[in-house]
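Hi R.,

As promised, here are both runs. First protein below:
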Amino acid sequence: MPKHTVFVCKSCNRSSEERPEKSLFDGDTLLDKLNTLCSKKLPSDEIIIQPVGCLWACSQGCVVAVSSDEKPTYLFVNLTPEESAAALLEFMQLYIKSRKGNIVWEKLPQVLQSKIFAQIPPVEA
């Protein structure tokens, strides 16, 4: 079974808020929450949570990309660490179960419906 990867931007922070000194970026917080929830809810042989330095969407708050071979890549923006981690894992369960990775908008967790920025088609071999 192919691996499914969640790329989490570690340098993301809500642009309207200043980050207090010595505190984590929102991206780091989201990454920690995802790792904790994933270890309890999803098989580790199906999913990789990959921190990345930057996804080049700095004005869009927390940014996450979800990708897998032969499936579309999804880009989510303006995520809040407090409510997005569980919704992302719910999305990942749908994505993993879908043979082609196409998730209809109505099936997205409600928290993510307004946060999806792009669905990028898979690269054809």
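And here is the second one, sequence first, then its structure tokens:
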Amino acid sequence: MAIEEDIARITEQEKTLVFDRFDLGTAWDLGSLLRHMAIERNLGVAIDVRLHSMPAFYAALAGSTPDNESWVRRKRNVVLRFFQSSYMIGRKLAQRDETLESKYGLSAVDYAPHGGSFPIAVTGVGCIGAVTVSGLPQREDHNLVVEALGRLLGKDVSTFRLD
């Protein structure tokens, strides 16, 4: 899939996967759903749901590594900085042959524009946090999060899922 098509689909995902309300109970439901999906598929991932600086859900499943927590933090930092998915930012940078460091002066120590972190957005409010998965190839991390958000929101994501 071309970068332009990825960007168009992720834009649609970000417009569609928005909550009317989101609280700590919803954060737990989202994290639990992701955990259930990962266990069912035997995926060794770390899962994080955070309301800006407040942790609301975290799980590290069998097969994940200590590095996954660092990836979660770095991908989440991208979402909380730009209010867009980490994969969207990565695809935009790739399209322009830029890096976060060259364009914004942001260090790879703290920011990773790789797939797997998605903004938690509320209608009329905007981005209030991020949901992040780490442990799979970045495109699969991204797709897992999108699928879980779609399920929780009752949205059919098949039309804008990344292949």
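A quick note on the second one: The mean pLDDT is 97. Let me know what you think.

Best,
J.
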